[in-house]
Amino acid sequence: MKGQIIIAGAGPVGTFVAFCLAEQGIDVLVLESAEHCETDMRASTFHPPTLSYLEQLGLAKPLINQGLKAPVFQYRIRSSKEVLDFNLGELKDTLEFPFRLQCEQYKFARMLAEKLEEHPHAEILFNHEVLIVSQDDAGASVEVNTPDGIRTYKGMYLIGADGANSIVRRQLGIDFSGFTYKEKFLTLSTEEKIENYFNDLSYVNYVSDPKDWFVLLKAPSAWRILVPIENDIKDSDIVSDKNINKVFQRVLGESKKVETIHRTIYRVHQRVVDKMMHQRILLIGDAAHLNNPLGGLGMNSGLHDAWNLSQKLGLIINHGHNKGLLGQFDRQRRAVMNDFIQRQTIRNKKMIEESGETSFESQWDEMRVIHANKAKRRAYMLEQSMTSSIERERDIV
Ligand SMILES: Cc1cc2nc3c(=O)[nH]c(=O)nc-3n(C[C@H](O)[C@H](O)[C@H](O)COP(=O)(O)OP(=O)(O)OC[C@H]3O[C@@H](n4cnc5c(N)ncnc54)[C@H](O)[C@@H]3O)c2cc1C
After folding, report:
1. Are the C-beta atoms of 49 and 304 separated by less than 8 Å?
2. CA–centroid distance, residue 257 to ligand 1 (Å)
3. What are phi and psi of 104, to 5 degrees?
4. What is the rounded CA–CA span in Å between residue 97 and residue 124?
5. Which of 342, 389, 29 is nearest to 177 (CA)?
6. In the sheet where 149-155 sits, what is the strand order?
7. Tens of pLDDT along 62-115?
8. How far is the CA of 86 from the centre of ligand 1 (A)?
9. Is residue 277 in contact with ligand 1, taking CB distance under 6 Å?
10. Predicted local confidence at residue 3, as pLDDT
11. How big is the CA angle at 348 (ends 71 and 264), to the nearest 5 degrees?
12. Of 387, 360, 178, 378, which is closest to residue 297 (Cα–Cα)?
């Protein structure tokens, strides 16, 4: 299995890094504990720079065909109904794709898993759970629970893309510093026509309120509603019909029984590993960093890790470049995560609620100033669309 790279996890990040490597002629083996790519309703937003990466591999159009183009994102105040529109169309001189693409993350992972199944340089094995990882100077090994018993696989490198509870990260015994929000986040998916309850609703809406904030996102299959829930409420009570009816009453402003397709509770963290590169073992995606979902940056950051890492592994394996390039991957991606993504998502959450540090009104006054000024509005959209973070990454040696 000379030259092979092992990837733990077939989520959006694991399947993407595998495809990026396989397209460069590098043999990859993807090991996934589940029996298929789960119908995961977490991420639904793909940002413009991510679409530009996908375009280089011929993946942008097939994904765009499955999604909804959202050039406009909105901030709203729940009580006054004030709306600030941010239109990425204003950046069409800079962005190849001047819109966010709204598409469920599982559609992306499944599309890539199907491509990997047919790829001459890829193998993807479901029902294969990575249990133990180890490494030496020549490569990395994994012990895996398979339908035929425990097996060992060896490769030149191991990429841990096995999500928030990553076994690869835990086996490395490294720090995952940061914090966990005290409230839980509830997401609901519904086929109800939420646009009928608001004026000029876009596909991406952040509705601010000192206490009762919520997010409304349109995905092709459903509207998705995200609300915070106090920590001391039991999970079974959170997803009960009684509580769900209350949430819809709060969001829609009228009492109505609304059918839901999914009801999911999440604990939300802000964390980044102290190192993404550990000799022959590399961590990417949620295995390496976590942030709140306000802004839709988590999966996109993982896809940017995957792109950066796969380009450097391509140079090392195919063109004999120095392994020191992996240190640059580590420096670039951790700087982006710490300086941009963590800061930005924490700020996005403060903006939508009463943060205790700045008053709700003064936060909104700041946003009104940004919105009213063309240069400030443009800079803000470049940041929210992750364009600035990619530029920053390129500057780090
Ligand atoms: C409510 C919510 C909304 C979100 N919305 C957005 C959004 O709009 N945009 C955005 O960019 N991000 C969003 N995110 C974040 C996004 O969902 C994650 O960042 C993304 O799923 C990370 O992808 P991943 O592939 O790294 O990990 P995962 O998606 O968690 O995939 C990990 C994979 O590894 C497998 N695995 C785990 N352990 C093992 C093992 N031991 N062996 C083998 N396989 C294993 C799992 O089964 C899984 O398939 C949101 C998150 C939440 C909670």
Report:
1. yes
2. 31
3. -65, 140
4. 31
5. 342
6. 129-135, 140-146, 149-155
7. 999 999 999 999 999 998 999 999 999 999 999 999 999 999 999 999 999 999
8. 27
9. no
10. 57
11. 85
12. 387
Give tens-digit pLDDT for 246-268: 999 999 988 889 999 999 999 99
Query: C-alpha angle 88/91/93, rounded to 5°?
Result: 145
Query: Is 0.90 surpassed by the pTM of this model?
Result: yes
Task: Determine the distance separating the centroid of ligand 1 and the alpha carbon of 165, expressed in angstroms.
Answer: 10
pLDDT digits (tens, 9 = 90+) for 280-295: 999 999 999 999 999 9
Instruction: Tell me if 23 CB under 6 Å of ligand 1.
Output: no
Q: Is 41 in the pocket of ligand 1 (CB under 6 A)?
A: no
Instruction: Give 11 Cα–ligand 1 centroid separation in angstroms.
Output: 6
Helix axes 387-395, 374-384, angle to 10 degrees: 70
Ligand 1 centroid – CA 299 distance (Å): 7
Tell me the CA–centroid distance for residue 143 and ligand 1, in Å: 22
Tell the burial category of 224 from Cβ atoms under 10 Å away from its Cβ (0-12, 13-18, 19+). buried
Name which of 214, 333, 207, 354 is nearest 274 in CA terms. Answer: 333
**Which residues does the chain have with pLDDT short of 50?**
1-2
Interval between CA 8 and ligand 1 midpoint (Å): 12
User: What size, in residues, is the chain?
Assistant: 397
- Quote the CA–CA distance of 37 and 384 in Å, as a whole number: 28
Instruction: Please report, as a single letter, which amino acid is at residue 82.
Output: E
Give nearest CA residue, ligand 1 atom 11: 299
Strand-strand pairing, 122-125 and 28-31:
parallel
Residue 307 CB contacts under 8 Å (≥ 6 apart), including other chains: 16, 20, 53
Tokens 């992306």 -> residue: 108
Atom of ligand 1 nearest to the CA of 144: 42
Rounded-to-integer distance, Cα 55 and Cα 26, Å: 20
Ligand 1: does its nearest atom lie under 6 Å from the Cβ of 49? Answer: no
Domains and CATH numbers, the chain: 5-69+103-177+269-356 (3.50.50.60)
Residue 125 in contact with ligand 1 by CB distance below 6 A: no
From the CB of 34, is ligand 1 less than 6 Å away?
A: yes
Residue pair 148/158 in contact (Cβ under 8 Å)? The answer is no
With a 6 A CB cut-off, is 10 part of the ligand 1 pocket?
yes
